[in-house]
């Protein structure tokens, strides 16, 4: 779905009735609060959240990285609107205790803001 908002076109526009997270740089919607799995993650620039799914995000090539929890294959993710790198997607976890992260997304707090219904 494409909807025009503040002179910008986004691939997806999340409903105003839900609490959402948006790109701090261009305000493109990134995730619905219902997709939040954990607030206890660390990104390269500080705290980060783990999401089950995201929108308006592009994905780079996967590469192996040693993270705090071991070796993972991850792909950097970026805002489709402003091209800012936001975090990464877990493509593969090499340790069985980390398999739950596969297919999930990390977005660093430095790159997102809360939108809609957080009063």
TrEMBL record:
Alphabetical UniProt keywords: Metal-binding, Zinc
GO MF, any single term: metal ion binding
Domain of life from the UniProt record: Eukaryota
InterPro entries linked to this entry: Yippee, Yippee/Mis18/Cereblon, Yippee_fam
Keyword Zinc: yes
Occurrences of domain Yippee (ranges): 19-116
Pfam families documented for this protein: Yippee-Mis18 (PF03226)
Family in the record: Belongs to the yippee family.
Name listed for the protein in its UniProt record: Protein yippee-like
The gene coding this protein: YPEL1
């Amino acid at each position: 779905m494409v909807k025009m908002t503040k002179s910008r076109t986004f691939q997806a526009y999340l409903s105003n009735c839900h609490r959402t997270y948006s790109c701090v740089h261009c305000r493109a919607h990134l995730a619905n609060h219902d997709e939040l799995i954990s607030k206890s993650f660390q990104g390269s620039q500080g705290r980060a959240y783990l999401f089950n799914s995201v929108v308006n995000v592009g994905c780079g090539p996967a590469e192996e990285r040693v993270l705090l929890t071991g070796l993972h294959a991850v792909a950097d993710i970026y805002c489709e609107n402003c091209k800012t790198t936001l975090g990464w997607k877990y493509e593969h976890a090499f340790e069985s205790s980390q398999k739950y992260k596969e297919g999930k997304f990390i977005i660093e707090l430095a790159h997102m803001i809360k939108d809609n219904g957080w009063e």
